[in-house]
Every structure is written in structure tokens, then in C-alpha cells.
UniProtKB/TrEMBL annotation:
Protein name as it appears in the record: 13591_t:CDS:1
Pfam families, per database record: Actin
UniProt similarity note: Belongs to the actin family.
InterPro entries listed in its UniProt record: Actin, ATPase_NBD
Organism: Ambispora leptoticha
Length: 408
């Protein structure tokens, strides 16, 4: 197939346990779709709980951020009652394929019979070769794409922050991945994964909120996981510097509006993310804290690489947006740093965080988009030369294993 490698044809898809982000060409708006979304016009009908689905639709709509575009669903499109991607693991391939199909064919209006849109898709560092082969099979055989490139999410995130070396701390919905990268090479042996993510914070916060008697009387309705998630995203996090200095954070209640109701939240809001630093709070006594895991990841790398890792920490993932998380993490990492006035070449005094460059004005506050933005930049380079990506010709000649020749 001969197709024009025009930028308006490039498709970028960034997979996540909570949301999938996608873009075709260079639109101002990024398309985001919940990973629980099930377009039933594309797959066989499944028995789902309508009451649970309605609750999910309400909460997701209420939590959509300014530049989030939820899917233009038809009347039979619903949300699944269980995850499609659970703590980073693909649990339902058919449903995931249906999501991709919905994005490509429905939202982007791509014609399968004459598909001129190559796809850049990101995956976690630890997804297997077999999973990559299945992705290739789906996109070439089911969607008829003319080209495909599978990119490492962590590597794309460090690119999205304007660097080629650093430590990517991806705090997702189901888990946290800590990935060292040095000069564009992922240090796979040093990756640390914590089974703690946004969903654990939601459950922990719900328990805290249920102990707030004033909230219970003001809200006058049952508190559920959707409510806790909303509170986390609106005011959850850690005390800011002013609150810590004045010691008013614990006593002051914050007024919140959710689904048309006004009420106040107490100090529970400032303890929601504490399990990242004390996993035993969510029953995970054997799991190291986030600072401990970061230190382990860095010290698992060669000594000459550690300085670049300490000085280029990239927080990403949905829960990276929690208020005060970076400041709390920076403070707790100080215990691991070598404090010396006569620092040598391989000594370091400070943990430094990098962010999305200011020139990306529409996205510089969206650290959770780092991998997506990095992939969008790399797509321009990859699809500019047929040698860089898997073409339809490559796939027809080699099959799914062609994915191992030009990806990662």
C-alpha cells in the first residue's frame, strides 16, 4: 500500500488502566476515553450491571477535566463492571480491541478498507513480546493500519519532559512503576513496581471520610468510591507550605461541591495519599514505600548513572497530580542523599524534578500526559522514515514477530 506520511494521518495511543489517551494529527484537543468504557456496538453483548454502569458514568462525567473529551457514546455503550486493564495487566483483550476500534473507526473516522493512518502506541516497559505480537496482529489484521510502532511508555515520558536521562515515577490507577532511563536506554533490570496506585488511595480515603461525622451529616447520602475519587481529585493531597507553617491544615475544613451538593471536608483530605509513604495503611506491609523504591531503583544502576537519575525525576500518571505530592516526596528523599560540601563526580545533594516544558503551554500542568506528549513528538520522527516503523509489507512478510525489529 502506498500512503502519504502526512502528520494529519498520524495516530498516537497511550494506554492506561484508568484512561486511554489518543490523538489523530495535531488537534488542539486530546481525546481521552475511560479504560472501563465498553462500546457494545463493536463486540458481543455482555451481562453488565446497569446500576453500577450508571454510577460510573456519573462519576466519570463529573470528574472530567477541562481538556478531557469523553466518548460520544451511543445508547447501548456502557461501562464495564470490571477492569479491562487491571494494575497494568491486560485482562480482557476483546474489550481492549473494542476500545481501540472505537477510537480509530468511530471517533477518528478512519476507514478500515483504506486506512492511511499509521499508529504509534505506548505500552508499559514490562509488557511481554507475546503481548506486543498480539497488538501488532490486531492493528494490522483487524484495523488494516499501514504502519505501527510500539513505544516504551517510560521512555516516552522522559522525552515528554524534555530529557533523555532520568527516573520516571509513573503513579497510575492500579500501580506505580519506577523506571530508570540513561541516554535513551531503559534500565530494565532496575525497574521497581509497587502494587499501589490511585485505586488504593480512593479506597483508603473513603474509609477516612466515613469517619467524618460532620461530613456524613452535611452530605446526607451514602459515601461511595466515586465520591472518594472526586474528593481526592478536587482537594486531596498533602498540606502545602502555608498550611504546614500555620498548622491550620488539620483544623480547617474545606467547602466542596459535588453533584450539586455542598458540604465540608476535614483533615482527612490531607491524609489520602499517605499509603504511598506507608503502604501498611492499605494492608501492604511487605511493600516498600515510594521513597524506598525510588532509592532502590537508582542504586540498582551503575554509579556513573545515578547522578543523572537523581537530577531528572519525572513524576507522571494520574495520581502524580495530587497536591503537594512532589514536595512531600522531595523531602522524604533527602535521607538517601549524600550530604557533603566536597561532593565528588558521583555524589549528589539534591533530588530534582523535571516537568513538561513551558513551551507546551496547553499541557505544562498536565504531568500525567508526559508519555502521550513524548510519543506525539517521537511519532513525527518515526513515521518520517519507513525504516523506523513496521509497515504492512513488513508484517505480511514476517508476521507478528516483525514487531520486535523496529519497536521499543
Amino acid at each position: 500500500m502506498i500512503f502519504a506520511l502526512k502528520e494529519e494521518n498520524f495516530v498516537v495511543i497511550d494506554n492506561g488502566s484508568w484512561r486511554i489517551k489518543a490523538r489523530k494529527g495535531v488537534p488542539k484537543e486530546i481525546f481521552e476515553i475511560p479504560s472501563l468504557f465498553l462500546p457494545t456496538d463493536n463486540i458481543e453483548k455482555r451481562a453488565l450491571s446497569s446500576s453500577n454502569d450508571n454510577n460510573n458514568i456519573l462519576s466519570l462525567s463529573s470528574l472530567s477535566i477541562a481538556d478531557t473529551k469523553l466518548p460520544t457514546t451511543n445508547p447501548v455503550s456502557v461501562f464495564t463492571s470490571s477492569p479491562i486493564i487491571d494494575r497494568g495487566e491486560i485482562k480482557k483483550w476483546d474489550e481492549l480491541e473494542a476500545l481501540w476500534r472505537h477510537i480509530l473507526l468511530k471517533e477518528f473516522g478512519i476507514k478500515r478498507s483504506r486506512n492511511e493512518c499509521p499508529v504509534m502506541i505506548t505500552t508499559p516497559s514490562w509488557w511481554t513480546k507475546e503481548q506486543h505480537e498480539r497488538i501488532a496482529q490486531i492493528f494490522f489484521e483487524h484495523f488494516n493500519v499501514p504502519g505501527l510502532y510500539i513505544a516504551d511508555q517510560a521512555l516516552m515520558a522522559i522525552y515528554g519532559c524534555g530529557s533523555v536521562s532520568g527516573l520516571v515515577v509513573d503513579i497510575g490507577h492500579g500501580k506505580t512503576d519506577i523506571t530508570p532511563i540513561f541516554e535513551s536506554i531503559v534500565q530494565y533490570h532496575a525497574i521497581q513496581t509497587l502494587p499501589i496506585g490511585g485505586q488504593d488511595i480512593d479506597k483508603y480515603l473513603l474509609t477516612l471520610l466515613q469517619s467524618d461525622e460532620q461530613l456524613l451529616s452535611e452530605y446526607d447520602d451514602m459515601l461511595d468510591i466515586d465520591f472518594a475519587r472526586a474528593i481526592k481529585e478536587i482537594i486531596g493531597g498533602f498540606p502545602d507550605e502555608e498550611e504546614e507553617q500555620s498548622h491550620t491544615g488539620d483544623e480547617e475544613r474545606k467547602e466542596v461541591e459535588y453533584l450539586g451538593k455542598r458540604f465540608t471536608i476535614g483533615s482527612e483530605r490531607l491524609r489520602a495519599a499517605e499509603p504511598f509513604f506507608n503502604p501498611s495503611l492499605v494492608g501492604k506491609d511487605e511493600v516498600p514505600s515510594l521513597p524506598d523504591a525510588i532509592n532502590t531503583a537508582i542504586y540498582s544502576c551503575d554509579i556513573e548513572k545515578r547522578s543523572a537519575l537523581w537530577e531528572n525525576i519525572a513524576l507522571t500518571g494520574g495520581s502524580s497530580l495530587l497536591k503537594g505530592l512532589k514536595e512531600r516526596l522531595q523531602k522524604e528523599l533527602e535521607v538517601f542523599l549524600i550530604m557533603s560540601e566536597n561532593a565528588g563526580d558521583y555524589q549528589f545533594k539534591e533530588a530534582k524534578f523535571i516537568k513538561i516544558p513551558d513551551y507546551l503551554t496547553n499541557f505544562k500542568e498536565r504531568q500525567d500526559l508526559a508519555a502521550f506528549l513524548g510519543a506525539s513528538m517521537v511519532a513525527k520522527l518515526v513515521f518520517g522514515d519507513p525504516k523506523n516503523f513496521i509497515s504492512k509489507v513488513d508484517y505480511n512478510e514476517i508476521g507478528p514477530t516483525a514487531v520486535h525489529t523496529k519497536s521499543y
